[in-house]
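Model it.
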Amino acid sequence: MKVTVDSKKGLKTNLKVFIEKKTIEEKIASRLVELSKTVNMKGFRPGKVPVDVLKMQFGKAIYGEVLENILKESSKKVIEDKKIKVAGQPKLDLTSHGEGKDLQYTLEIDELPTIKLQPIENIKFNDYEIKITDSNVNKRIEDIAKNQDNFKDKNENERAENGDMVVFDYQATIDEKNFEGGEGKNTQIVLGKDLFIKGFDSQLKGIKKNQEKEVVAILPENYPKKEYAMKKAIFKCKILNIKKAETIKIDDQFAKNLGAKDLNDLRQLVTKQIQDQYKSRLETIAKENILEQIEKLHNFDLPKNLIEQELSLMTQDLKSQEIEKNKKNAESIAKKRIKLGLVLNEFGDINNLKVNEEELRAGIQKQVQSMPGQQKQVLEYYQKNPSAESSLRGSIYEDKIINFIKQKAKKITNSISVDEAENILKLEHEKKHKDHDHSKKKKTISANKIKTKKSKKPTKTKANNKKIRKK
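Modeled.
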């Protein structure tokens, strides 16, 4: 086999590969001998078919099989011998081939860039300790209490008002006809929240228990049966009960109802919950800031095919005119993603960072625990979707690399209050919103400039208050 460099420009290398016909013929002969020992053919004993007969009968098929194997093996060896780090699938183009001929082909290879990692000791990031006051804890517990259902029956002569729960049966009609979904039993709504059908609550104000009330409402646009959407319906309601919300007493029993041992235990759990909530969100900001610094520290060319692949993934659900409109912005994002991915992988490789099976299982378990009531479905999802598991492994790997970088970078420790944490998060949100608007404005101006010339079609680029349990 003879290999020559046809051309090399940037990260793109073109190689010419030449393989003598003698090598091909030897492999064909070897394959024919191998087949002669196993093939069955009429008129010959098993394993006794002459090679010449096999060549006459299956020559073209065997040549095709041998050619495919030679191309696969030789191209792999070429890349290994030249110590090329391939970015994506190389393009192979046959220039000369055929039975009884030498084989010539070209390999067009996009190479991964050589990355010189920059010192990370000067990278800075903020690490926050959240000071939780009794006032913070009291407010969170009071908010939890407000969201607990605690309704007591009102007297029969008391009328319904905002904040009361009304329990009723109803039969609804459209144009004096019953319709599917137009009947309900023991329906419960809290007046003032307007969560049933828009404008429904207000018509039940002032009613009493055992009273009948006719309510007129427009069915929502997203009504399950589309033929009834936006239609006027008349609801004949029979009021079964009216309940008044009562303030929950915050005591040991209240804490036990939430899964804590007592009120003091609940306070400790809530303190940790608040700390974890803010720390997690602030760590996300720190991570984004570290990635931004890493991206700016490194400068190298990127393989065009990787940029094209990333753009294809980013825009796969967009229309062609949206893609063209946001092309420049999308390309910038794609380049940053690829650059960061290559740099982080280099950090991981050089420092021998890997995600083992135990870490992956722990990651899956964390996802399972984050979805109360759906643990089984989440677990099955990861078991049945290798791509989901692969994505999670990538996320764990990235976090591992970031944590490694944090150990070498300059940590600035800040002790802040909940109000200060809220302010940091607010400023970060406003910054992202401003950047988004600025980018959008630039794209609009650019689009207007294009239109003044010749219009090209433009393109686009918990805290849930449920039971608190100890982990």
